[in-house]
Amino acid sequence: MPPSTRNSQELVTSVPVREPFNASILFSFLEGRIVPGIEAVTEKRYRRRIEGDVWIEAEMIERGLQVRIPPEAAVHAAEITARLRRLFDVDAKPRDIDRHLAKVPMLAPLVHAEPGIRVPGVWDPFEGAVRAVLGQQVSVARATRLAGVLCERFGAGGFPDAPSLANAEVAAIGLPGMRGRAISAVARRVVDEGVGWLEDAESLRAGFLQIPGLGPWTAEYAAMRVGRDPDAFPDSDWGVVKALGLKGAAARHWAEPCRPWRAYAVMHLWCSQAV
User: Fold this and answer.
1) Out of 59-63, 67-71, 197-201, which region has the weakest mean confidence (pLDDT)?
2) Is the pLDDT of residue 2 over 80?
3) What's the rounded Cα separation, in Å, for the pair 222 and 195?
4) Which of 72, 84, 139, 258 is 20 to 30 Å from 220 by CA-CA measure?
5) Distance between CA 128 and CA 119 in Å, rounded?
6) Cβ neighbours for 248, distance < 8 A, ≥ 6 positions apart
7) What is the DSSP letter of 238?
Protein backbone atom coordinates (compact mmCIF):
# COMPACT_ATOMS: atom_id res chain seq x y z
CA MET A 1 0.00 0.00 0.00
CA PRO A 2 1.16 3.58 -0.58
CA PRO A 3 2.69 5.43 2.34
CA SER A 4 0.24 7.32 4.54
CA THR A 5 2.67 9.83 5.99
CA ARG A 6 3.19 13.19 4.31
CA ASN A 7 6.46 15.01 3.80
CA SER A 8 6.55 18.68 4.68
CA GLN A 9 8.82 19.18 1.66
CA GLU A 10 6.31 17.80 -0.84
CA LEU A 11 5.07 19.95 -3.68
CA VAL A 12 1.35 20.72 -3.44
CA THR A 13 -0.40 22.16 -6.45
CA SER A 14 -3.93 22.34 -7.81
CA VAL A 15 -5.45 21.44 -11.16
CA PRO A 16 -8.71 23.32 -11.77
CA VAL A 17 -11.55 21.48 -13.53
CA ARG A 18 -14.50 22.71 -15.50
CA GLU A 19 -17.78 22.22 -13.69
CA PRO A 20 -19.87 20.20 -13.40
CA PHE A 21 -17.31 17.49 -12.66
CA ASN A 22 -18.75 14.10 -11.76
CA ALA A 23 -15.96 12.97 -9.47
CA SER A 24 -17.95 10.14 -7.89
CA ILE A 25 -18.35 8.21 -11.12
CA LEU A 26 -14.81 8.86 -12.28
CA PHE A 27 -13.19 7.73 -9.04
CA SER A 28 -15.48 4.71 -8.87
CA PHE A 29 -14.48 3.76 -12.42
CA LEU A 30 -10.79 3.99 -11.54
CA GLU A 31 -11.25 2.13 -8.26
CA GLY A 32 -12.76 -0.85 -10.06
CA ARG A 33 -9.69 -1.10 -12.27
CA ILE A 34 -6.72 -0.44 -9.98
CA VAL A 35 -3.68 -2.69 -10.04
CA PRO A 36 -2.68 -3.21 -6.39
CA GLY A 37 0.82 -2.04 -5.62
CA ILE A 38 0.76 0.45 -8.48
CA GLU A 39 -2.45 2.38 -7.87
CA ALA A 40 -4.84 3.03 -4.99
CA VAL A 41 -8.18 4.81 -4.75
CA THR A 42 -9.81 5.87 -1.48
CA GLU A 43 -13.08 7.75 -1.91
CA LYS A 44 -12.00 10.73 -4.05
CA ARG A 45 -8.25 10.31 -3.70
CA TYR A 46 -6.09 8.65 -6.33
CA ARG A 47 -2.53 7.49 -5.67
CA ARG A 48 0.00 6.28 -8.18
CA ARG A 49 3.43 4.80 -7.65
CA ILE A 50 5.77 6.34 -10.19
CA GLU A 51 9.07 4.70 -9.21
CA GLY A 52 10.42 2.72 -6.29
CA ASP A 53 8.42 3.74 -3.23
CA VAL A 54 7.59 7.19 -4.60
CA TRP A 55 3.85 7.86 -4.78
CA ILE A 56 2.00 10.88 -6.09
CA GLU A 57 -1.54 11.75 -5.02
CA ALA A 58 -4.48 13.58 -6.55
CA GLU A 59 -7.46 14.37 -4.35
CA MET A 60 -10.72 15.96 -5.42
CA ILE A 61 -11.33 19.18 -3.53
CA GLU A 62 -13.61 22.09 -4.25
CA ARG A 63 -13.41 22.94 -7.97
CA GLY A 64 -10.29 20.95 -8.69
CA LEU A 65 -7.70 18.33 -7.94
CA GLN A 66 -5.15 18.88 -5.22
CA VAL A 67 -1.94 17.20 -6.33
CA ARG A 68 0.80 16.16 -3.91
CA ILE A 69 4.21 15.32 -5.32
CA PRO A 70 7.05 14.16 -3.05
CA PRO A 71 10.34 16.06 -3.28
CA GLU A 72 12.06 13.18 -5.10
CA ALA A 73 9.63 13.60 -8.01
CA ALA A 74 9.28 17.40 -8.01
CA VAL A 75 11.46 17.69 -11.10
CA HIS A 76 8.76 15.75 -12.98
CA ALA A 77 5.90 17.95 -11.75
CA ALA A 78 4.90 19.21 -15.20
CA GLU A 79 4.77 15.69 -16.66
CA ILE A 80 2.84 14.36 -13.66
CA THR A 81 0.29 17.14 -13.96
CA ALA A 82 -0.13 16.48 -17.68
CA ARG A 83 -0.72 12.80 -17.00
CA LEU A 84 -3.33 13.61 -14.37
CA ARG A 85 -5.10 16.03 -16.70
CA ARG A 86 -5.40 13.22 -19.24
CA LEU A 87 -6.43 10.62 -16.67
CA PHE A 88 -9.17 12.82 -15.19
CA ASP A 89 -10.32 14.34 -18.50
CA VAL A 90 -10.15 17.80 -16.94
CA ASP A 91 -10.18 19.64 -20.25
CA ALA A 92 -13.59 18.35 -21.35
CA LYS A 93 -16.43 20.82 -21.93
CA PRO A 94 -19.10 19.30 -19.67
CA ARG A 95 -21.84 21.89 -20.19
CA ASP A 96 -21.62 21.60 -23.97
CA ILE A 97 -21.52 17.80 -23.77
CA ASP A 98 -24.43 17.53 -21.35
CA ARG A 99 -26.54 20.00 -23.33
CA HIS A 100 -25.97 18.01 -26.51
CA LEU A 101 -26.56 14.53 -25.07
CA ALA A 102 -29.66 15.64 -23.18
CA LYS A 103 -31.35 16.09 -26.57
CA VAL A 104 -31.27 12.31 -27.03
CA PRO A 105 -34.46 11.00 -25.36
CA MET A 106 -32.90 7.88 -23.83
CA LEU A 107 -29.93 9.82 -22.47
CA ALA A 108 -31.81 12.85 -21.13
CA PRO A 109 -32.70 11.34 -17.72
CA LEU A 110 -29.20 9.87 -17.40
CA VAL A 111 -27.56 13.23 -18.09
CA HIS A 112 -29.85 15.02 -15.63
CA ALA A 113 -29.12 12.39 -12.98
CA GLU A 114 -25.34 12.39 -13.53
CA PRO A 115 -24.17 15.68 -15.04
CA GLY A 116 -20.52 16.31 -15.75
CA ILE A 117 -19.50 12.74 -16.54
CA ARG A 118 -15.94 12.39 -17.80
CA VAL A 119 -14.28 9.74 -19.95
CA PRO A 120 -11.40 8.42 -17.82
CA GLY A 121 -8.10 8.53 -19.64
CA VAL A 122 -4.97 6.58 -18.80
CA TRP A 123 -1.82 7.37 -16.85
CA ASP A 124 0.42 6.01 -19.60
CA PRO A 125 -0.51 5.37 -23.27
CA PHE A 126 1.40 2.09 -23.56
CA GLU A 127 -0.02 0.78 -20.30
CA GLY A 128 -3.52 1.81 -21.40
CA ALA A 129 -3.11 0.09 -24.76
CA VAL A 130 -1.94 -3.16 -23.17
CA ARG A 131 -4.76 -3.09 -20.66
CA ALA A 132 -7.27 -2.56 -23.48
CA VAL A 133 -6.01 -5.77 -25.09
CA LEU A 134 -6.17 -7.58 -21.74
CA GLY A 135 -9.81 -6.51 -21.47
CA GLN A 136 -10.85 -8.01 -24.80
CA GLN A 137 -13.68 -10.53 -24.33
CA VAL A 138 -13.30 -10.74 -20.54
CA SER A 139 -14.86 -9.02 -17.55
CA VAL A 140 -13.38 -5.90 -15.96
CA ALA A 141 -12.45 -7.97 -12.89
CA ARG A 142 -10.67 -10.59 -15.00
CA ALA A 143 -8.82 -7.96 -17.04
CA THR A 144 -7.66 -6.23 -13.86
CA ARG A 145 -6.41 -9.50 -12.38
CA LEU A 146 -4.51 -10.22 -15.60
CA ALA A 147 -2.91 -6.77 -15.42
CA GLY A 148 -1.72 -7.59 -11.92
CA VAL A 149 -0.23 -10.90 -13.02
CA LEU A 150 1.44 -9.18 -15.98
CA CYS A 151 3.09 -6.73 -13.58
CA GLU A 152 4.27 -9.52 -11.31
CA ARG A 153 5.67 -11.57 -14.16
CA PHE A 154 7.24 -8.89 -16.35
CA GLY A 155 7.09 -5.58 -14.51
CA ALA A 156 9.90 -5.71 -11.94
CA GLY A 157 7.64 -3.99 -9.44
CA GLY A 158 5.76 -1.73 -11.83
CA PHE A 159 3.84 -1.94 -15.08
CA PRO A 160 6.10 -3.56 -17.69
CA ASP A 161 7.56 -1.31 -20.36
CA ALA A 162 7.51 -1.99 -24.09
CA PRO A 163 10.99 -3.60 -24.32
CA SER A 164 9.99 -6.03 -21.57
CA LEU A 165 6.94 -7.25 -23.51
CA ALA A 166 8.13 -7.01 -27.12
CA ASN A 167 9.62 -10.51 -27.11
CA ALA A 168 7.96 -11.96 -24.03
CA GLU A 169 5.69 -15.01 -23.87
CA VAL A 170 2.82 -12.88 -22.61
CA ALA A 171 0.30 -15.70 -22.98
CA ALA A 172 2.01 -17.39 -20.02
CA ILE A 173 -0.05 -15.19 -17.67
CA GLY A 174 -3.22 -17.00 -18.78
CA LEU A 175 -4.10 -15.47 -22.14
CA PRO A 176 -4.94 -17.08 -25.47
CA GLY A 177 -1.77 -17.26 -27.54
CA MET A 178 -2.98 -14.86 -30.20
CA ARG A 179 -3.84 -12.22 -27.60
CA GLY A 180 -0.44 -12.57 -25.97
CA ARG A 181 1.22 -12.13 -29.35
CA ALA A 182 -0.94 -9.08 -30.00
CA ILE A 183 0.38 -7.42 -26.84
CA SER A 184 3.92 -8.16 -27.96
CA ALA A 185 3.14 -6.68 -31.38
CA VAL A 186 1.92 -3.45 -29.77
CA ALA A 187 5.06 -3.39 -27.64
CA ARG A 188 7.36 -3.96 -30.63
CA ARG A 189 5.82 -1.06 -32.52
CA VAL A 190 6.24 1.20 -29.49
CA VAL A 191 9.89 0.12 -29.22
CA ASP A 192 10.40 0.90 -32.92
CA GLU A 193 8.32 4.08 -33.23
CA GLY A 194 7.58 5.43 -29.76
CA VAL A 195 4.11 5.99 -28.30
CA GLY A 196 2.97 8.74 -30.65
CA TRP A 197 0.80 6.41 -32.71
CA LEU A 198 -1.09 5.42 -29.55
CA GLU A 199 -1.85 9.04 -28.70
CA ASP A 200 -3.54 9.71 -32.04
CA ALA A 201 -6.92 7.97 -32.16
CA GLU A 202 -6.96 7.30 -35.90
CA SER A 203 -3.41 5.94 -35.93
CA LEU A 204 -4.25 3.80 -32.93
CA ARG A 205 -7.37 2.34 -34.57
CA ALA A 206 -5.54 1.57 -37.80
CA GLY A 207 -2.56 0.11 -35.95
CA PHE A 208 -4.67 -2.11 -33.74
CA LEU A 209 -6.76 -3.44 -36.62
CA GLN A 210 -3.57 -4.46 -38.45
CA ILE A 211 -2.58 -6.74 -35.57
CA PRO A 212 -3.97 -10.31 -35.71
CA GLY A 213 -6.22 -11.00 -32.75
CA LEU A 214 -7.35 -7.40 -32.18
CA GLY A 215 -10.83 -6.43 -33.27
CA PRO A 216 -13.04 -3.34 -33.48
CA TRP A 217 -14.03 -3.37 -29.81
CA THR A 218 -10.41 -3.19 -28.66
CA ALA A 219 -9.59 -0.49 -31.20
CA GLU A 220 -12.58 1.65 -30.21
CA TYR A 221 -12.12 1.19 -26.47
CA ALA A 222 -8.45 2.13 -26.78
CA ALA A 223 -9.33 5.10 -29.00
CA MET A 224 -11.77 6.23 -26.33
CA ARG A 225 -9.44 6.05 -23.32
CA VAL A 226 -5.91 6.06 -24.76
CA GLY A 227 -6.38 8.06 -27.96
CA ARG A 228 -8.77 10.47 -26.20
CA ASP A 229 -11.32 10.46 -29.03
CA PRO A 230 -14.52 12.00 -27.60
CA ASP A 231 -16.52 10.37 -30.39
CA ALA A 232 -15.21 6.81 -30.02
CA PHE A 233 -18.03 4.26 -29.87
CA PRO A 234 -17.44 0.55 -29.18
CA ASP A 235 -20.74 -0.65 -30.66
CA SER A 236 -20.22 -4.30 -29.65
CA ASP A 237 -19.39 -3.53 -26.01
CA TRP A 238 -21.35 -5.68 -23.57
CA GLY A 239 -22.55 -2.72 -21.50
CA VAL A 240 -23.61 -0.76 -24.58
CA VAL A 241 -25.46 -3.73 -26.04
CA LYS A 242 -27.18 -4.44 -22.74
CA ALA A 243 -28.26 -0.82 -22.29
CA LEU A 244 -29.50 -0.35 -25.84
CA GLY A 245 -30.65 -3.82 -26.80
CA LEU A 246 -28.78 -3.10 -30.02
CA LYS A 247 -25.34 -3.75 -31.44
CA GLY A 248 -23.30 -3.17 -34.56
CA ALA A 249 -24.90 -1.03 -37.25
CA ALA A 250 -28.12 -0.64 -35.24
CA ALA A 251 -26.20 0.69 -32.24
CA ARG A 252 -24.21 3.06 -34.43
CA HIS A 253 -27.45 4.35 -35.97
CA TRP A 254 -28.84 5.01 -32.48
CA ALA A 255 -25.66 6.88 -31.56
CA GLU A 256 -25.61 9.22 -34.55
CA PRO A 257 -27.37 12.07 -32.71
CA CYS A 258 -24.73 11.79 -29.96
CA ARG A 259 -21.92 12.88 -32.29
CA PRO A 260 -19.35 14.29 -31.65
CA TRP A 261 -19.63 13.09 -28.03
CA ARG A 262 -20.40 9.39 -28.40
CA ALA A 263 -17.70 8.36 -25.89
CA TYR A 264 -19.54 10.34 -23.21
CA ALA A 265 -22.77 8.66 -24.22
CA VAL A 266 -21.00 5.34 -23.67
CA MET A 267 -20.07 6.42 -20.14
CA HIS A 268 -23.74 7.17 -19.40
CA LEU A 269 -24.78 3.80 -20.82
CA TRP A 270 -22.15 2.03 -18.72
CA CYS A 271 -23.28 3.85 -15.61
CA SER A 272 -26.89 2.88 -16.27
CA GLN A 273 -25.75 -0.76 -16.24
CA ALA A 274 -23.27 -0.33 -13.37
CA VAL A 275 -20.42 -1.45 -15.66
Assistant:
1) 59-63
2) no
3) 13
4) 84
5) 13
6) 235, 236
7) H
